[in-house]
Amino acid sequence: MPVKNIADSIQGILEKHRGFMTVKGLVSSMSADDKRALGIKKSDSGKIIIRKIEKSAEGRFIFSSKGRSVYILVPFDPSEFVLDILSEKKAFDPKMIQSLPFTKSEFVAIINGLVEEGRVIIKLSDDMKPKIYRAPNVRKANNAHDVNDSGEYTQERFKAAFDELDRGRIFVRICDLRRRLGWPREVFDGMIRDLRNRRVIQLHTGDASLMTPDEVSDCYIDENNFRMGSVTWHDRQ
Fold first, then answer.
1. Is the distance from CB of 190 to CB of 147 less than 8 angstroms?
2. Does residue 169 lie within any of the structural domains?
3. What digits encode the pLDDT tens for the residues 130-157?
């Protein structure tokens, strides 16, 4: 199998497991041909295996440590992922955190962000324990206009924030732009998607090794699960 197809093979395996696995689990699920193409040997340490995967995976995946385990993930929006596993009627089981690629503190931060956006609600049970639910009627926005009835979130405001961060550099990091605007995640992502589809902006992939975990989380994940790290404006006067 050509090396150029290894990334597709890995992504296929990950997508069968909700988009993430431990590196050890991934290797166990790989075919002998994939392991041979990557040069993986039984004597290889975890760090060596990760380097071999990174070399052939074309920057398409994220590696995240949790305890003694290292996860490999298809780039995704952590908030959307967590929202998808929550239910409106059945409370989230805290034991599930053990099987997720997030630490407890990361999961708490994601939940708190979703609560602030009104996409998750927390109720107290009779014994005063918090119960986590997805808020009723929460959906993903297909574009910025779906959630912009108030007119507060406009292309003009988006461009103004871009210009403030640009300062002649042309490339603006999406994580910086997201934080500057402070919009709800679905609104910001909807605007990015809308502007890209209309060819107003161009998106570029980002190098996760040069970012903090929070900055990686604040990138934009497109419909093909590629992590976009920066944006340029097509029409620069």
1. yes
2. yes
3. 999 999 876 544 444 444 444 577 888 9
